[in-house]
């Protein structure tokens, strides 16, 4: 037989929350409500900021290099790549062949290592924003050609594009001739092996949003890159998608289509940095969660105090027909109402704070180059769902002990005490 619902439980749950008078909520519950609200705000803000940092780093890496990189699985050069590049372009990918060399660049008395990319400027500007017009990918991320002009003719005529940090360190300006030297001794002469050397004129300076890349990246033509690499193929195909967020999904699809090749999304270009950000998000979430757990202890104490104070009332309720289940539902509903109010307030306040930061960039972070960086935020529905589920789970765990204490309420003993 189905048990009939006791409608007085819901009324008493609201009545116990309000306390005496016409208050919306009893002062005894203010601290509990504040703890739940602040816990939700902290969890959401930390998760959204870490999501923002992940997106920020992704845009910086992909903006300087590409979103996806395809190379041979065995480390050998790709020779017959034109047909594959054409197929990728028909699928909607921007695609550019690249040769990567680690060289030495010398200007005057300064000599620095450089990671030199052999590119085809006709295609590469559509893959890497670092070689396109100077613009902001998002607040604090500025990429593009800072000065000079990238043309196919100038690049083929022994031209070179320097990143801003590398140009400053060398002291080189537009029109200056720098010497590019291969560290490998690969040209035989009567006096032994000598390195490959080529003089190149600076035709443009590129602005990158990644400080490490700015200090070492340079760009030359494919033919000049082949002169230093010693092979006629390419090292990789750089790709750009129509949606940066889906780049990892596209990389998995391409890996299935080209199983013999190595397909890497941007998150693997600097795997240690990306892994550190993911771990930091997890760690910060755990720390905030522990603080939320501590705040939930207040809910446990509040319920225990309420049961102790209302022991006689509870005994009277039992004597007039309220079951143990009714009393448990009473305090469970009271806890759920309180936590739901705190969760809703936390969601609203956190959303407002994050929207304000995303639209105004109110909070700035100091950078190594003294230029302020806007604190990045990115709200994700999955984070909101996780926070809500975790909050309710902690609420249920917090009231387990108080609900067990209800079994100790003996209406007969309480009636005897009052008579």
Notes on the protein architecture:
Helix 12 packs antiparallel against helix 13. It is built from 15 helices and 13 strands. The strands form 2 sheets. The protein has a 6-stranded mixed β-barrel. It has a two-stranded antiparallel ribbon with strand order 12-13. The radius of gyration is 32 Å and the shape is elongated. With 419 residues, it is of the alpha+beta class. The two termini are 37 Å apart. It has 2 domains: 199 residues, no CATH class; 131 residues, no CATH class.
Portion in strands: 15-25%
The rounded distance between the terminal residues' Cα atoms is 37 Å
Low-confidence stretches: none
Number of strands: 13
Q: For the largest beta sheet, what order do the strands appear in spatially?
A: 2-3-9-6-8-7
Oligomerization status of the protein chains:
single chain
Instruction: Report helical residue fraction.
Output: 40-55%
Number of helices: 15
């Amino acid at each position: 037989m189905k048990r009939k619902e006791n409608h007085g439980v819901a009324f008493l749950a609201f009545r116990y929350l309000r306390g005496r008078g016409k208050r919306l909520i009893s002062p005894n519950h203010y601290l509990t409500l504040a703890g739940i609200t602040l816990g939700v705000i902290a969890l959401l803000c930390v998760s959204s900021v870490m999501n923002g940092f992940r997106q920020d780093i992704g845009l910086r890496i992909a903006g300087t290099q590409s979103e996806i990189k395809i190379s041979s699985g065995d480390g050998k050069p790709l020779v017959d790549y034109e047909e594959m590049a054409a197929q990728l372009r028909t699928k909607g990918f921007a695609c550019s062949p690249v040769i990567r060399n680690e060289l030495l660049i010398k200007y005057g008395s300064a000599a620095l290592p450089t990671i030199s990319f052999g590119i085809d400027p006709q295609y590469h500007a559509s893959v890497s924003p670092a070689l396109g017009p100077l613009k902001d990918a998002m607040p604090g991320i500025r990429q593009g050609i800072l000065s000079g002009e990238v043309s196919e003719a100038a690049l083929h005529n022994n031209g070179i594009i320097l990143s801003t940090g590398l140009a400053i360190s060398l002291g080189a300006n537009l029109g200056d001739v720098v010497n590019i030297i291969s560290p490998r001794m690969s040209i035989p002469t009567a006096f032994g092996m000598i390195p490959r050397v080529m003089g190149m004129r600076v035709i443009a300076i590129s602005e990158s949003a990644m400080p490490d890349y700015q200090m070492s990246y340079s760009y030359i033509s494919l033919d000049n890159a082949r002169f230093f690499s010693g092979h006629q193929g390419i090292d990789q195909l750089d790709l750009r998608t129509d949606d940066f967020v889906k780049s990892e999904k596209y990389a998995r699809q391409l890996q299935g289509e080209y199983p013999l090749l190595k397909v890497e999304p941007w998150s693997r270009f600097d795997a240690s940095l990306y892994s550190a950000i993911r771990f930091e998000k997890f760690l910060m979430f755990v720390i905030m969660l522990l603080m939320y757990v501590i705040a939930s202890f207040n809910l446990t104490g509040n319920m225990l105090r309420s049961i102790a104070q209302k022991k006689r009332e509870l005994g009277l309720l039992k004597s007039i027909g309220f079951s143990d289940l009714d009393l448990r539902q009473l305090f469970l509903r009271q806890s759920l109402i309180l936590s739901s109010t705190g969760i809703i307030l936390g969601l609203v306040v956190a959303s407002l704070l994050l929207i304000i930061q995303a639209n105004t960039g109110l909070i700035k972070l100091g950078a190594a180059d003294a230029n302020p960086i806007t604190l990045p935020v990115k709200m994700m529905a999955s984070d909101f769902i996780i926070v809500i589920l975790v909050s309710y789970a902690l609420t249920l765990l917090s009231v387990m002990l108080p609900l067990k204490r209800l079994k100790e309420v003996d209406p007969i003993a309480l009636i005897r005490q009052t008579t």
